[in-house]
Amino acid sequence: MKNLYVFVLLFIATIFAPPKIFAQCEGITVESITNPGPYEVATLTEADGIRNGPAYLGATVYYPTNATGPFASIAIIPGFTALPISVSDWGPFYASHGIVTIIIGTNSLFDFPETRAMALIDALETLRQENVRPTSPLENKIDTEKFTVSGWSMGGGGAQRAAVLDNTIKGVVALCPWLPNPILNHDSPVLIFSGQNDPTAPPAQHANIHYNVTPNTTNKLLFEVKNGDHSVANSPTGANGNLGKIALSWLKLYVEDNDCYCPLLTDELLVNPPTASKVESSFECELVGIAENAINISVFPNPTQDFVTINISQPVHFNVFSTLGQQLFSGEITPNNKQIDFSNLAAGIYYLQFENEMIRIIKK
C-alpha cells in the first residue's frame, strides 16, 4: 500500500505539477535561490554578548530575523593574511536563506590550515553557546546537529581538515582551498569551488587533489570556474551568481536534509554550466516522495552504463521518469526480454516504475 501511494503521488505530480518540479517541492527553483534570499538579516558581535572564542579573533553572526528556526549554521574563515571582510558577502547571503552564519578572524594572519580548522571548530562551539544564551535572539533557534564549515584558500583547507577532526560536521564548502599533501578521510559532504586560472592555489595542485583524496564514499562535488582566479569564490555572486546557488542547494540538500534541492543540482545547475571549465561529482540524492525498492526484485547492473536487466517471471509494463517526474519512455519487459536500454540517457539518476514499485537507477 505504501509503494502504491508513493506512485500515485508521482503520477499526480507528473500530470498536474509544473513541468519543472514536483508538487511537494513547488516554490523551490533556481529562481528562488537568488541573492539576497527572502529573509531579513541582522548581525551579532561580541559587543552584543556572543562568546569570545579562544581559537579565533573576532566574529560576526548573521541570522534571519523573520524566519522560524531551528536553523542550520555555517562557520566561515578567511585565507592566509586575509581579514573576515574578504568572505563577508557569504554571511548575509546564507542568512537571507535561513542559514545562521558566523564569520571569524584568526588569532594570527599567518595561521596555517590546521590552526584554521581548530578555529572553525571553536566557532561552532560559539554557536552552541549562543543557542542557550538567555538574552540571545537565537536562543533555542539553532539546530546544533546541523553545522557546516567553510573557508577560503588556507581557510578552505582548514574547513576540510575540520571535518576530519570533528565527525559531527555535516558539510564542507571549500573556496579555492589551499592545502598540500591533504589527508581528508571524512564523510561530510564536500563542495569544492576552484578557479581555472588560480595562481595561488592552482587546481591541479590543490582542489583537484582534495577532490580525489576525499573518499569515494563521501558525497563530493568539484566546480572549477572558467577563467576564475584565486578570489573567484569569495562571494556568492561568483560565476554569475552560480556559486551562491550551488552552495545553497548543497547545504539545503545535505545539511538541512531537504531533497527538493537535488534536481536543482543534478538537472539544472550542473548540466553543462557555461561558467565552469570543469565539473566532477560523486554524490547521490533523491527527491522527496520517491521510495526505494521495497520488495525483492533483482535489477542489475545498477549503476549502469547502458542496459539494466529485470528479474521477472511474467510480462510487466514499465515507465522511466526523471528526478523531476517527467516520463521519459515506457515499454514492456517479459521473461524472454528482460532488458531496458538506458544508453540514450545522460548520466544521472532516474526512476523505473512498474506496477506499484519504484526503483532508483543510476546511469553512469
From TrEMBL:
<keyword id="KW-0378">Hydrolase</keyword>
<keyword id="KW-0732">Signal</keyword>
<dbReference type="GO" id="GO:0052689">
    <property type="term" value="F:carboxylic ester hydrolase activity"/>
</dbReference>
<dbReference type="Pfam" id="PF18962">
    <property type="entry name" value="Por_Secre_tail"/>
</dbReference>
<dbReference type="InterPro" id="IPR041127">
    <property type="entry name" value="PET_hydrolase/cutinase-like"/>
</dbReference>
<feature type="domain" description="Secretion system C-terminal sorting">
    <location>
        <begin position="299"/>
        <end position="364"/>
    </location>
</feature>
<dbReference type="Pfam" id="PF12740">
    <property type="entry name" value="PETase"/>
</dbReference>
<dbReference type="InterPro" id="IPR026444">
    <property type="entry name" value="Secre_tail"/>
</dbReference>
<dbReference type="InterPro" id="IPR029058">
    <property type="entry name" value="AB_hydrolase_fold"/>
</dbReference>
<dbReference type="InterPro" id="IPR050261">
    <property type="entry name" value="FrsA_esterase"/>
</dbReference>
<feature type="domain" description="PET hydrolase/cutinase-like">
    <location>
        <begin position="36"/>
        <end position="265"/>
    </location>
</feature>
<protein>
    <submittedName>
        <fullName>T9SS type A sorting domain-containing protein</fullName>
    </submittedName>
</protein>
